[in-house]
Amino acid sequence: MGLIGRDREIGRLERLIGALPERGAALVLLGEPGIGKSALLGQAAAIARGSGLRVLATAGVEAEAHLPYAGLHQLLRPIRDHFDVLPPSQRQALRAALGLAEASGPDNYLVALAVLNLLAETAESGPIVLIAEDAHWLDPSTAGVLAFLGRRLESEPVLLLASARTGMATWLDGAGLPDLVVPPLSEQDAAALLDAHAKNLPAAVRRRLLSEARGNPLALIELPAALIDLGNPAIMPDPTTEIGPTTEIGPTAEIEPTAATGPAAPSEPAAVTGPTAPTEPAAVSGPWLPLTARLEEAFTRRFAVLPPVTRAVLEVAALNDSADPHEALAAAQALGGRPVTAAELVPAVDARLLTVSESRLAFHHPLIRSAIHQAAGPVRRREVHRALAAVLAERPDRRTWHLAAASDRPDEGIATALEAVAARAQRRGSGEAVVAALEQAARLSEDPDRRADRLLRAADGAVELGRPEIVDRLLGEAGKLELSRQRRARVAWVRAAFDDGLRGGGMDASALADLAESVAEDGDVDLAVRILWSAALRCFWTEPGMPARDRIVDVAERLPLDPLDARLIAILGYAAPVARGAVVIERSRRLLARAVLDSRTARLVGSVAVLVGTFDVAIEQSAASLAGLRDQGRLQLLARALAAQAWAAAQLADLTVALPAAEEAGRLAEETGQPFLLGLVLATQAKIAALRGQVGRAGELAAEAERLGTRVGARNVLATAQHARALAALAEGDHPQALARLLRMHDVTDPAYQLALSCHTVADLADAALHSERPGDVAGVLARLEAAALATTSPSLHDGLRLARAVLAGRDEAEELFRAALAADLTRRPFMRARTALAYGEWLRRQRRATESREYLRAARDLFDALGTSPWGERARRELRAAGERSSERQAATSELLTAQELQIAQMAAEGLTNREIGKRLYISHRTVGAHLAKIYAKLGATSRVQLHNALG
Fold this sequence. Notes:
By secondary structure, the protein is mainly α. The protein is built from 46 helices and 9 strands. 62% of the residues lie in helices and 4% in strands.
């Protein structure tokens, strides 16, 4: 007999399973406790197995939520012998995450990519169904991996099915996965289930049970069972009825405990003195209770009548962070002081509280665990934790956690052991476990200073995780202590660390520089650099004023660092892109000449190159950083490197680089929770759209970027969006509007003013002023930029000024200035070369030298066409027509035929990369790459990578 009243839900699951292997999918089942989510997952597993599919399953358990990758360990255990199919870096990261090998801090995203590739390879021999029950209790590391997978299964023969309680936060929430809310049973179906499970109920009892259960299947099954347990012989269940909601799914093999780490013990609930004696059945008498509480009460009553030794084993199982029955029996023996055997579990099995295999204990429903936990009371729980610690001598991390949970007073020995747990968790790449261990260590610290330092370290780690609610809690605890001046400053620094200090105010840039100086004087130079980098980033996102910028530079230049330290170069460039521009450019050049940079150093050099105007360096070094960041799974930094690359490429109108870089940067910024970086990327995409003549699209993207940037005053976002709007106006020939928008970027009182980025608009400013016939409006701005050019060797600024001088010069000086601008080395800046040629050709035609003008206008047209900047190409065509020469129709560029992601994949394929290599770079599987390539070949009329290379060339 199937599940009663679940035809709609089962139909959807059958359709998803039936679509394999043509396409994969993900679905999250949501519902209240006992609503039948587990039953539906069990049915899906049965359907999949019946179709010959492989099923891999895991289940979240509240007591195991602090064990990093515990859920993943359970999920992958049946295919652990397939790890050798992975590239070495991914294989090592996955083994380290699961505690099977030592490694230094594998990134969660690298682990996730390894799992994606492992599943893709395994699915070659047949589709796979992944089942994750009670995802709200999965450890965060596992949940993060599942969220990553869920977004990337469309082209894979893999189906992810998860369940979670409605209203409980889970790391799957932000993944954008489809969900299915499992509703209560209808009145008719609820009655059918009750009648099938408990026959011959008195009419009054039946009505009360249906009313109490409110369509909840677990309640319809367990509340009558509670009456039976209390000796009512009139109510007899039908043992042949398949009821579903308590079905256990997934592998029964034990999760091997590994280098466990974990969070602070849950806060103690109100004291409960222990199991209570049976009273009248909850289903027929007593005050109204919420359904979950009534079910827990029913389970508590069933637990209360078990033999004492059986209750002890269940108490251990409820508090243990492993399902190992041998541990439970050993700890129960330690509690009672006499031998305990598996036979003691029989009463719990008979009472339908527990299922037992040789290697695993499992409660029939999570509410049973919760009920037993509550009934034990705080004193008994500490006794159980001590007993567990006693039997875990060979599992030091888990032993430490149980000792911590057993302690009701400070204990420096345990606190120090928890710091060691945090260090091992750091090596495994579980930032959540690091934070939790340090927080628990702080709770047990005897010395207030040590407690404060541990809380601050934990809060700093929570910033890295992007968890503001944890940061607030930890800093709130730290704020209750007597803190030194420096620790108070560190509290303020950590509190303001999210999104580069854009949220919530906090310390200003000058105060951060003061703190960095103080920390450096105490000997912690690395921490001082980190704090000073926070201050420098505020100069990028906001405008702290010149005194603050000067203060940052002063502190930075007095730090005992190598002048070619990329961190120092970046701080100087972000804080003083003009005043220290020449220094940054010269040191960057020396650093690049000295050695090949590692990925993080290359990213820093690339990002600061955007600010000082060396865009070719920005593109090259950002590109150089990508492979390493991808291999390490550093998706947050990868998003930033791609954003810098995209911004620089857009400024050079190198759309074949800018388009795919911006598209990927946007996806990763959203996935990694960086909303203001996403705003910057959207503004960059608006610039790209304007350059391509997609004026309406540019306006939409700029508006969305401004929506994200305005609420926090993110000046780089607002400046870039304003520049995009100005370029769109230039593309339409609306020069007055373009001029007004560009002037806003140079007004220090305007939110769109950003010191560095305003220096890269000079050519646009001069163009708009000339064609608006308002050159006087920009005279003051250009004078300030001329002064700035004395302090920096920025190619962008100097190129723009050379063109502006020529465009706005009088007739007698203009030609010499144009020729000087054309003589500059613009080989690596073709858009500027084309604009200079266009401006000179326009000037020549206005001087009635039409024949001479054609050469320059023709060169400009061809360059603009090659770059895909169609509005400027059309402008050159119009000028050529006015000069007496007609132009052929522009041919669509390859970049206009493909989506941004298709262009990126096409470029990689044309370079000779295999589908698997492309997938590794882009965090997608080789099947997804193949699906994209099929579309690319069709659009370009190509049939091979060689033809693809020619088409792109």
